[in-house]
UniProtKB/TrEMBL annotation:
<dbReference type="InterPro" id="IPR050287">
    <property type="entry name" value="MTA/SAH_deaminase"/>
</dbReference>
<dbReference type="InterPro" id="IPR006680">
    <property type="entry name" value="Amidohydro-rel"/>
</dbReference>
<protein>
    <submittedName>
        <fullName>8-oxoguanine deaminase</fullName>
        <ecNumber>3.5.4.32</ecNumber>
    </submittedName>
</protein>
<keyword id="KW-0862">Zinc</keyword>
<comment type="similarity">
    <text>Belongs to the metallo-dependent hydrolases superfamily. ATZ/TRZ family.</text>
</comment>
<dbReference type="InterPro" id="IPR032466">
    <property type="entry name" value="Metal_Hydrolase"/>
</dbReference>
<keyword id="KW-0378">Hydrolase</keyword>
<dbReference type="GO" id="GO:0019239">
    <property type="term" value="F:deaminase activity"/>
</dbReference>
<dbReference type="Pfam" id="PF01979">
    <property type="entry name" value="Amidohydro_1"/>
</dbReference>
<dbReference type="GO" id="GO:0046872">
    <property type="term" value="F:metal ion binding"/>
</dbReference>
<dbReference type="InterPro" id="IPR011059">
    <property type="entry name" value="Metal-dep_hydrolase_composite"/>
</dbReference>
<feature type="domain" description="Amidohydrolase-related">
    <location>
        <begin position="53"/>
        <end position="418"/>
    </location>
</feature>
<dbReference type="GO" id="GO:0102127">
    <property type="term" value="F:8-oxoguanine deaminase activity"/>
</dbReference>
<keyword id="KW-0479">Metal-binding</keyword>
Amino acid sequence: MTERVWVKDPIAVLADGAERGVVVEDGRIVELVGKGAAPAHPVHSVFDASRHVVTPGLVNTHHHMFQTLTRAHPKAINKELFPWLQALFPIWAGNVDPENFRLATRLALTELLISGCTTASDHQYLFPPGLEFAMDIQAEEAAKLGVRMTLTRGSLNLTADEGGNADQGAVQDTDVILADCERVIGRYHDASEGSMLQVAFAPCAPFNVTKRLMVETAELAAKCNCHMHTHLGETRDENVYCMEHFGYRPVDYLEEVGWLNDRVWLAHGIHFNDDEMVRLGKAGVGVSHCPTSNMVLASGQCRTKELEAAGSPVGLGVDGSASNDNSNLMEAVRHALMIGRLTYNAETVTHFDAFRWATEGSARCLGRSDIGAIAVGKQADLSFFTLDELRFSGAGDPLAALVLCGAYKADRVMVKGAWRIEDGVPPGVDLAELRYEHGRVAKKFLESV
């Protein structure tokens, strides 16, 4: 018999009918315990959650973990996207190697976990010589920390000399890319309920991959029944690029290459017009809203409410750790609320909207129905926040306080019923050593100034 654990009497819980907590068994939520009730069946143990506000585990739908190595890089600060990329591409291409990539992944996943994130997706598009097994490194690091992950096998194959903006040292041959996509999905993709690893294919963006790669990636994804991801509609410069090189706007390009379907989720999705949002919603294309990065790079404001109304799943992403410059998804929840209110108003965008984007919406973007909510049958992925810090003193609504008062770290995190954060840290991880080792290898990137 598997152990039944009652997560008992939280301060508040982001679920209806769970005022007295939830019962977890075999990695799943098996019962919600309502107000004045007790579990319907005997439990083996009780976790006292009376200090905690409980939310579903947050789900990150867009990241670039290798970029933790170039945070606040002197060559890239105070720039918008295209000049920012021009400054950093040569530095990344010439310096990312298996050792520092492993440490970058470990650091980013640890940061995400500490922020309450239980499922991560990293848009890993950089494969310079020597880093051909980046996906294997990320699978290993996710397993060590006990994080769910979508291994997003990205790609670049269009250099600046060929009309794109990727550095020559970072591109791969199209056939090599597609062959590795098949290798990675064959080795790691688990489509079953509760899986810890899944795989998606992810050519980087219209301005650094070829049409052939986009078309053949879509064909391979249909064959393998997996999801696809790319950047789209992030800046006005991208719209101009598409008009100049293809003769139409990014959503038309998406349809042209066979990507206008519900296996796709897009990063940013800012500069779509009304008609394009209707088309995306009708096709079920998801959008990863990246509020922090969008503000840092001054890219614009995602029209989240219109996209949702049209039918598009909207999730949250922290984006690259050199345009964010951290990996904190709880912070992104707050930023999504704030920029959402600037885009709309204080009544239209609530803390419940921001939480929904970071949980249910993000899960839908990744094509997962088994995570993203506290409900019977869902995976037991839960984040536990305390209100002990000075920032929360005087707060009336506990769930709203997490967002409005600026929660940024979880006290405990559960993934598939197992504790992955206890007392604010991952068990067995020496944070000081991780900080030292990551900082040591990151110095190489500063020497490229």
